[in-house]
Write a structure and sequence with these properties.
Blueprint (H helix, E strand, L loop, with lengths): L3 H16 L4 E4 L4 H14 L3 E7 L7 H11 L4 E5 L1 H8 L5 H23 L3 E3 L4 H8 L16 H5 L2 E3 L7 H10 L4 H4 L19 H18 L6 E13 L9 E12 L7 E2 L4 H14 L3 E6 L13
This protein binds xanthosine-5'-monophosphate.
Xanthosine-5'-monophosphate (XMP) binds next to loops.
Protein backbone atom coordinates (compact mmCIF):
# COMPACT_ATOMS: atom_id res chain seq x y z
CA UNK A 1 0.00 0.00 0.00
CA UNK A 2 1.06 3.52 -0.66
CA UNK A 3 2.07 5.74 2.24
CA UNK A 4 -1.35 7.22 3.00
CA UNK A 5 -0.18 10.61 4.31
CA UNK A 6 2.20 11.04 1.38
CA UNK A 7 -0.52 9.99 -1.05
CA UNK A 8 -2.91 12.60 0.33
CA UNK A 9 -0.27 15.32 0.16
CA UNK A 10 0.64 14.45 -3.43
CA UNK A 11 -2.94 14.23 -4.64
CA UNK A 12 -3.94 17.54 -3.05
CA UNK A 13 -1.01 19.13 -4.88
CA UNK A 14 -1.90 17.39 -8.14
CA UNK A 15 -5.54 18.48 -7.98
CA UNK A 16 -4.47 22.07 -7.30
CA UNK A 17 -2.12 22.06 -10.28
CA UNK A 18 -4.51 20.37 -12.68
CA UNK A 19 -7.52 22.51 -11.84
CA UNK A 20 -5.55 25.75 -11.68
CA UNK A 21 -7.65 28.90 -11.30
CA UNK A 22 -10.79 27.22 -12.61
CA UNK A 23 -13.60 25.74 -10.63
CA UNK A 24 -14.14 22.00 -10.71
CA UNK A 25 -17.06 19.65 -10.26
CA UNK A 26 -17.13 16.40 -8.32
CA UNK A 27 -20.00 14.07 -9.14
CA UNK A 28 -20.61 12.75 -5.65
CA UNK A 29 -22.50 9.48 -5.38
CA UNK A 30 -21.86 8.91 -1.69
CA UNK A 31 -19.84 5.77 -2.33
CA UNK A 32 -16.40 5.59 -0.79
CA UNK A 33 -14.55 6.58 -3.98
CA UNK A 34 -16.34 9.82 -4.79
CA UNK A 35 -16.54 10.65 -1.06
CA UNK A 36 -12.75 10.44 -0.76
CA UNK A 37 -12.41 12.61 -3.87
CA UNK A 38 -14.78 15.18 -2.30
CA UNK A 39 -12.54 15.55 0.75
CA UNK A 40 -9.29 15.62 -1.25
CA UNK A 41 -10.80 18.27 -3.52
CA UNK A 42 -12.08 20.28 -0.58
CA UNK A 43 -8.54 20.32 0.84
CA UNK A 44 -7.07 21.29 -2.53
CA UNK A 45 -9.63 23.75 -3.81
CA UNK A 46 -11.72 24.99 -0.88
CA UNK A 47 -14.92 26.48 -2.25
CA UNK A 48 -13.76 26.17 -5.86
CA UNK A 49 -15.04 22.60 -5.83
CA UNK A 50 -18.71 22.07 -6.49
CA UNK A 51 -20.11 18.73 -5.38
CA UNK A 52 -23.11 17.67 -7.39
CA UNK A 53 -25.23 14.68 -6.49
CA UNK A 54 -27.19 13.58 -9.54
CA UNK A 55 -30.40 11.99 -8.38
CA UNK A 56 -30.94 9.51 -11.18
CA UNK A 57 -34.06 8.10 -9.54
CA UNK A 58 -32.15 4.83 -9.05
CA UNK A 59 -30.78 5.57 -5.59
CA UNK A 60 -31.64 3.73 -2.42
CA UNK A 61 -34.20 5.05 0.09
CA UNK A 62 -33.33 8.59 1.30
CA UNK A 63 -29.83 8.25 -0.15
CA UNK A 64 -29.48 11.74 -1.69
CA UNK A 65 -30.65 13.55 1.45
CA UNK A 66 -28.64 11.48 3.89
CA UNK A 67 -25.45 11.97 1.88
CA UNK A 68 -26.04 15.71 1.71
CA UNK A 69 -26.51 15.75 5.49
CA UNK A 70 -23.34 13.74 6.20
CA UNK A 71 -21.21 16.08 4.11
CA UNK A 72 -22.85 19.18 5.51
CA UNK A 73 -21.71 18.01 8.95
CA UNK A 74 -18.10 18.00 7.77
CA UNK A 75 -18.44 21.40 6.13
CA UNK A 76 -18.87 20.28 2.51
CA UNK A 77 -21.85 21.54 0.54
CA UNK A 78 -23.58 19.12 -1.83
CA UNK A 79 -26.09 20.17 -4.43
CA UNK A 80 -28.75 17.56 -5.28
CA UNK A 81 -29.96 17.73 -8.86
CA UNK A 82 -33.10 15.76 -9.68
CA UNK A 83 -32.51 14.32 -13.13
CA UNK A 84 -34.67 11.22 -12.70
CA UNK A 85 -37.07 12.06 -15.56
CA UNK A 86 -34.21 11.85 -18.02
CA UNK A 87 -33.30 8.36 -16.88
CA UNK A 88 -36.82 6.94 -16.84
CA UNK A 89 -37.45 8.42 -20.25
CA UNK A 90 -34.24 6.93 -21.68
CA UNK A 91 -34.88 3.51 -20.13
CA UNK A 92 -38.49 3.25 -21.32
CA UNK A 93 -39.27 -0.07 -22.97
CA UNK A 94 -35.76 -1.47 -22.44
CA UNK A 95 -35.50 -4.92 -20.96
CA UNK A 96 -32.00 -6.16 -21.72
CA UNK A 97 -29.64 -5.87 -18.74
CA UNK A 98 -26.56 -4.80 -20.68
CA UNK A 99 -28.56 -2.37 -22.81
CA UNK A 100 -30.00 -0.78 -19.64
CA UNK A 101 -26.50 -0.32 -18.20
CA UNK A 102 -25.32 1.33 -21.40
CA UNK A 103 -28.33 3.64 -21.46
CA UNK A 104 -27.69 4.52 -17.83
CA UNK A 105 -24.06 5.36 -18.55
CA UNK A 106 -24.85 7.44 -21.64
CA UNK A 107 -27.63 9.34 -19.90
CA UNK A 108 -25.43 9.89 -16.85
CA UNK A 109 -22.73 11.43 -18.99
CA UNK A 110 -25.10 13.59 -20.98
CA UNK A 111 -26.69 14.95 -17.83
CA UNK A 112 -23.39 15.34 -16.02
CA UNK A 113 -21.84 17.05 -19.05
CA UNK A 114 -24.69 19.55 -19.03
CA UNK A 115 -24.35 20.12 -15.29
CA UNK A 116 -20.59 20.73 -15.58
CA UNK A 117 -21.15 23.15 -18.48
CA UNK A 118 -23.86 24.97 -16.55
CA UNK A 119 -21.52 25.39 -13.57
CA UNK A 120 -18.79 26.96 -15.72
CA UNK A 121 -16.26 24.34 -14.55
CA UNK A 122 -13.56 23.13 -16.91
CA UNK A 123 -12.67 20.12 -14.88
CA UNK A 124 -14.50 17.06 -13.59
CA UNK A 125 -13.05 15.12 -10.68
CA UNK A 126 -13.82 11.42 -10.63
CA UNK A 127 -13.36 8.60 -8.19
CA UNK A 128 -12.35 6.03 -10.79
CA UNK A 129 -10.26 3.24 -9.24
CA UNK A 130 -8.03 0.59 -10.78
CA UNK A 131 -10.57 -2.31 -10.88
CA UNK A 132 -13.16 -0.04 -12.58
CA UNK A 133 -10.82 0.31 -15.51
CA UNK A 134 -9.76 -3.34 -15.58
CA UNK A 135 -13.29 -4.73 -15.27
CA UNK A 136 -14.75 -2.39 -17.87
CA UNK A 137 -11.99 -3.19 -20.33
CA UNK A 138 -12.52 -6.91 -19.71
CA UNK A 139 -16.24 -6.47 -20.36
CA UNK A 140 -17.20 -7.60 -16.84
CA UNK A 141 -18.85 -4.32 -15.93
CA UNK A 142 -20.08 -1.29 -17.75
CA UNK A 143 -18.98 1.44 -15.42
CA UNK A 144 -20.29 4.90 -15.92
CA UNK A 145 -17.12 6.57 -14.68
CA UNK A 146 -14.92 5.26 -17.43
CA UNK A 147 -14.54 7.54 -20.41
CA UNK A 148 -11.10 7.73 -21.91
CA UNK A 149 -10.69 4.01 -21.22
CA UNK A 150 -13.57 3.22 -23.60
CA UNK A 151 -12.47 5.66 -26.24
CA UNK A 152 -14.46 8.76 -25.29
CA UNK A 153 -12.54 12.01 -25.10
CA UNK A 154 -14.44 14.04 -22.48
CA UNK A 155 -12.78 17.30 -23.50
CA UNK A 156 -13.89 16.89 -27.10
CA UNK A 157 -17.31 15.48 -26.36
CA UNK A 158 -18.31 17.40 -23.27
CA UNK A 159 -15.91 20.33 -23.02
CA UNK A 160 -14.17 19.43 -19.77
CA UNK A 161 -11.17 17.40 -18.73
CA UNK A 162 -11.25 14.73 -16.05
CA UNK A 163 -8.97 14.35 -13.04
CA UNK A 164 -8.90 10.90 -11.46
CA UNK A 165 -6.81 10.97 -8.28
CA UNK A 166 -7.65 7.39 -7.22
CA UNK A 167 -6.94 5.63 -10.50
CA UNK A 168 -3.99 3.60 -9.16
CA UNK A 169 -5.74 2.36 -6.04
CA UNK A 170 -7.83 -0.68 -5.23
CA UNK A 171 -10.83 -0.52 -2.92
CA UNK A 172 -9.21 -1.29 0.42
CA UNK A 173 -6.55 1.33 -0.24
CA UNK A 174 -9.26 3.91 -0.94
CA UNK A 175 -10.85 2.98 2.40
CA UNK A 176 -7.51 3.53 4.14
CA UNK A 177 -7.24 6.97 2.55
CA UNK A 178 -10.84 7.73 3.57
CA UNK A 179 -10.07 6.73 7.13
CA UNK A 180 -6.99 8.97 7.20
CA UNK A 181 -9.09 11.84 5.84
CA UNK A 182 -11.54 11.38 8.76
CA UNK A 183 -14.36 10.35 6.51
CA UNK A 184 -17.17 9.01 8.75
CA UNK A 185 -17.06 5.22 9.00
CA UNK A 186 -20.52 4.95 7.41
CA UNK A 187 -18.90 6.34 4.27
CA UNK A 188 -15.56 4.59 4.04
CA UNK A 189 -17.12 1.27 4.95
CA UNK A 190 -20.10 1.44 2.64
CA UNK A 191 -21.55 -1.76 1.29
CA UNK A 192 -20.94 -2.16 -2.46
CA UNK A 193 -23.73 -0.68 -4.54
CA UNK A 194 -24.10 -0.68 -8.28
CA UNK A 195 -23.02 2.29 -10.35
CA UNK A 196 -26.27 2.10 -12.34
CA UNK A 197 -28.10 1.82 -9.02
CA UNK A 198 -31.49 0.16 -8.84
CA UNK A 199 -31.55 -0.07 -12.65
CA UNK A 200 -29.63 -3.29 -12.05
CA UNK A 201 -32.04 -4.58 -9.43
CA UNK A 202 -35.11 -4.53 -11.65
CA UNK A 203 -35.35 -7.39 -14.12
CA UNK A 204 -37.27 -6.26 -17.18
CA UNK A 205 -38.47 -2.72 -17.78
CA UNK A 206 -37.31 0.01 -15.40
CA UNK A 207 -40.28 2.21 -14.56
CA UNK A 208 -40.79 4.58 -11.62
CA UNK A 209 -43.31 2.18 -10.10
CA UNK A 210 -41.06 -0.87 -10.42
CA UNK A 211 -38.03 0.96 -9.01
CA UNK A 212 -40.16 2.13 -6.09
CA UNK A 213 -41.06 -1.52 -5.32
CA UNK A 214 -37.45 -2.67 -5.29
CA UNK A 215 -36.32 0.44 -3.37
CA UNK A 216 -38.77 -0.31 -0.54
CA UNK A 217 -37.88 -4.01 -0.50
CA UNK A 218 -34.16 -3.22 -0.56
CA UNK A 219 -34.48 -0.86 2.37
CA UNK A 220 -36.32 -3.50 4.43
CA UNK A 221 -33.63 -6.05 3.56
CA UNK A 222 -30.88 -3.63 4.62
CA UNK A 223 -32.67 -2.68 7.84
CA UNK A 224 -33.14 -6.30 8.90
CA UNK A 225 -29.81 -7.72 7.70
CA UNK A 226 -27.29 -4.92 8.28
CA UNK A 227 -26.90 -5.77 11.99
CA UNK A 228 -25.31 -9.06 10.77
CA UNK A 229 -22.68 -6.96 8.93
CA UNK A 230 -22.70 -8.95 5.69
CA UNK A 231 -20.44 -8.12 2.74
CA UNK A 232 -23.52 -7.24 0.71
CA UNK A 233 -27.28 -7.68 0.83
CA UNK A 234 -29.89 -6.71 -1.69
CA UNK A 235 -33.35 -7.16 -3.15
CA UNK A 236 -34.21 -7.80 -6.78
CA UNK A 237 -37.57 -7.48 -8.51
CA UNK A 238 -38.44 -10.26 -10.94
CA UNK A 239 -40.08 -9.63 -14.26
CA UNK A 240 -42.50 -12.54 -13.90
CA UNK A 241 -45.39 -12.50 -11.50
CA UNK A 242 -46.72 -15.21 -9.19
CA UNK A 243 -50.24 -16.30 -8.36
CA UNK A 244 -51.80 -14.63 -5.40
CA UNK A 245 -53.93 -16.60 -2.97
CA UNK A 246 -57.14 -14.71 -3.19
CA UNK A 247 -60.65 -14.88 -1.95
CA UNK A 248 -62.23 -18.35 -2.48
CA UNK A 249 -65.02 -16.79 -4.49
CA UNK A 250 -62.80 -14.61 -6.64
CA UNK A 251 -63.11 -15.21 -10.35
CA UNK A 252 -59.91 -16.00 -12.23
CA UNK A 253 -56.37 -15.58 -10.99
CA UNK A 254 -54.66 -12.56 -9.55
CA UNK A 255 -50.93 -12.08 -9.80
CA UNK A 256 -48.39 -10.22 -7.72
CA UNK A 257 -44.71 -9.35 -7.81
CA UNK A 258 -41.80 -11.56 -6.73
CA UNK A 259 -38.79 -10.26 -4.82
CA UNK A 260 -35.53 -12.16 -4.41
CA UNK A 261 -33.37 -11.44 -1.39
CA UNK A 262 -29.65 -12.01 -1.58
CA UNK A 263 -27.04 -11.78 1.14
CA UNK A 264 -23.45 -12.83 0.65
CA UNK A 265 -20.06 -12.99 2.32
CA UNK A 266 -17.01 -12.21 0.25
CA UNK A 267 -13.58 -10.59 0.38
CA UNK A 268 -13.44 -8.97 -3.02
CA UNK A 269 -16.74 -9.85 -4.74
CA UNK A 270 -14.93 -12.21 -7.11
CA UNK A 271 -16.34 -15.24 -5.32
CA UNK A 272 -19.06 -15.27 -2.70
CA UNK A 273 -20.74 -17.54 -0.17
CA UNK A 274 -24.31 -17.13 0.94
CA UNK A 275 -24.91 -15.84 4.46
CA UNK A 276 -26.74 -18.28 6.71
CA UNK A 277 -29.33 -15.86 7.94
CA UNK A 278 -31.29 -16.99 11.01
CA UNK A 279 -34.74 -18.20 10.03
CA UNK A 280 -36.58 -15.70 12.22
CA UNK A 281 -34.91 -12.82 10.40
CA UNK A 282 -35.84 -14.31 7.03
CA UNK A 283 -39.44 -14.75 8.19
CA UNK A 284 -39.53 -11.14 9.38
CA UNK A 285 -38.22 -9.95 6.00
CA UNK A 286 -40.91 -11.92 4.16
CA UNK A 287 -43.61 -10.58 6.46
CA UNK A 288 -42.45 -6.98 6.17
CA UNK A 289 -41.98 -7.01 2.39
CA UNK A 290 -45.34 -8.65 1.67
CA UNK A 291 -47.10 -6.31 4.10
CA UNK A 292 -45.26 -3.07 3.42
CA UNK A 293 -44.49 -3.18 -0.28
CA UNK A 294 -47.70 -2.94 -2.31
CA UNK A 295 -48.10 -5.61 -4.96
CA UNK A 296 -45.42 -8.01 -3.70
CA UNK A 297 -46.83 -11.43 -2.83
CA UNK A 298 -43.80 -13.69 -2.93
CA UNK A 299 -40.31 -13.38 -1.46
CA UNK A 300 -37.52 -15.89 -2.06
CA UNK A 301 -34.10 -16.18 -0.43
CA UNK A 302 -31.46 -17.03 -3.00
CA UNK A 303 -28.84 -19.43 -1.64
CA UNK A 304 -26.66 -19.73 -4.74
CA UNK A 305 -22.95 -19.02 -4.26
CA UNK A 306 -20.70 -17.24 -6.76
CA UNK A 307 -19.68 -19.15 -8.89
CA UNK A 308 -21.76 -20.38 -10.63
CA UNK A 309 -24.00 -17.36 -10.07
CA UNK A 310 -23.03 -13.71 -9.90
CA UNK A 311 -23.91 -11.54 -6.91
CA UNK A 312 -26.35 -9.38 -8.82
CA UNK A 313 -28.96 -10.81 -11.19
CA UNK A 314 -28.35 -8.81 -14.33
P1 LIG B 1 -21.43 -9.54 -9.79
O1 LIG B 1 -22.92 -9.40 -9.94
O2 LIG B 1 -20.71 -9.38 -11.10
O3 LIG B 1 -20.97 -8.30 -8.89
O4 LIG B 1 -21.04 -10.77 -9.05
C1 LIG B 1 -19.73 -8.16 -8.26
C2 LIG B 1 -19.76 -6.88 -7.44
O5 LIG B 1 -19.79 -5.76 -8.32
C3 LIG B 1 -20.99 -5.03 -8.13
N1 LIG B 1 -21.44 -4.68 -9.50
C4 LIG B 1 -21.33 -3.46 -10.04
N2 LIG B 1 -20.85 -2.31 -9.53
N3 LIG B 1 -21.36 -1.20 -11.55
C5 LIG B 1 -20.88 -1.19 -10.29
O6 LIG B 1 -20.45 -0.12 -9.84
C6 LIG B 1 -21.86 -2.31 -12.15
O7 LIG B 1 -22.29 -2.28 -13.29
C7 LIG B 1 -21.83 -3.51 -11.34
N4 LIG B 1 -22.21 -4.79 -11.57
C8 LIG B 1 -21.97 -5.49 -10.41
C9 LIG B 1 -21.94 -5.94 -7.38
O8 LIG B 1 -22.88 -5.24 -6.59
C10 LIG B 1 -20.98 -6.76 -6.55
O9 LIG B 1 -20.59 -6.09 -5.37
Amino acid sequence: MVDVEKFIEEKVKEIKEKVGENIAVNALSGGVDSSVVAILAHKALGNKIKNIFLNTGMMRQNEPESIQEIFQKIGIEVEIKDVSDRFFEALKGQEDGEEKRKIFRDTFYKVLGEAVKESGAKCLLQGTIKPDVEETKAGIKTQHNILSQIGIDPEQQYGFKTVEPLIDLVKWEVREVGKALSLPETRFNTMPFLGPGLTGRVIGEVTRERVEIVRKANSIVEEEIMPLKPFQCLAVLFKDKATMKGDENAQGRNYGDIIAVRCIESKDARTAEVTEIPYDILKKIVKRITEEVPGVIKVVYDITPKPPSTIEYI
